[in-house]
Amino acid sequence: EFLLKYNAFYGGMKKAGHRISLSFVTDETLVDEYNEKYGTDYLSLPVGSYEMPNLTGAIESGQNSTPIFNVILKPKGYLEPFKPYLLPITVEAEGAPVNEALQTVYFEVIASFGPGEAPREKILSLGADQRNLLIPFVDGKLIVRDEDGALQLYATDDAGVFGNPVQIGAGWQIFNQIFYFEPDRVVGIATDVIQYQVDGNGGFGSSRTIGWGWNIFEKIFPYKHFLIGVRPDGLTTAYPYNEQGDLDGANIRDIASDWNRYEQLFAYGSSLLGIEADGTLWQIPMSETNMPQQRVQLGSGWDMYQSVVASGNDLLAIDESGDLWRYKFDVKGFWPLKAE
Q: What is the distance between the alpha carbons of residues 163 and 186, in angstroms, rounded to a whole number?
């Protein structure tokens, strides 16, 4: 159960001179009116998914508000995860005027999974010791660097499960990190940054070195047309990476000072996702100028995995046994992976 809190106020500088009786009502037609006015697609909270123990109340003489009342939400079995619902509550008063502009409060409700209930699907078994070796590729494909340094390309079947791999490279153990950049580049980083042309089938073409001295960074990850490096002290620098495959050293900029708090960082749409050592999952929205905004917690318990990457809208997570799991992820919800 979850609680939504509401109350009513007596407006103005003075307090109520007498007892004002109030009633609180819900009206599904207000959801339709709200959607039409604002171009939204909210659903009405289904009957049975909530209770309102206090349908009446009062502002007592000498007071300027009612007590705080609760709506008791009971989403399980009623609400679909990540769909937006709206609950309008309107106040009506006996013998007193009501400000129509402030008469109705709208509660947005978006249900998520309970602790330990987030659905996942096992899509591949790789064996142990595969940390940081997952490289999302084109069309939902996945490149995995195996323990011998070979790159193995996996494609999915119609059910989204990975089949047998095809080896597309060898000797890649020389790199600490490997990324794919759309539309046609793979980047390997050790001390220097080396770029390889690649086609959609994993066929490699020419290569060249485009950066030097990147061993100053503890973590490196791609975001849109940037390579972002995190130093051990948390200072984080973004390097523009243009369509010609060149790093623009003249326009680098520092974007954060404390990102050593994250064990993992990776791009997800127009945001970054960060996982802290205790398993807390954060979304870091990025502005149109590619600067980080206020972070939002999206989950907990993600330390049960050794590595997590984004593949399209999904998250792929590998555990200590080498099993790879797919989550149909949605940033509108909350993802608590461990049962309480």
A: 22
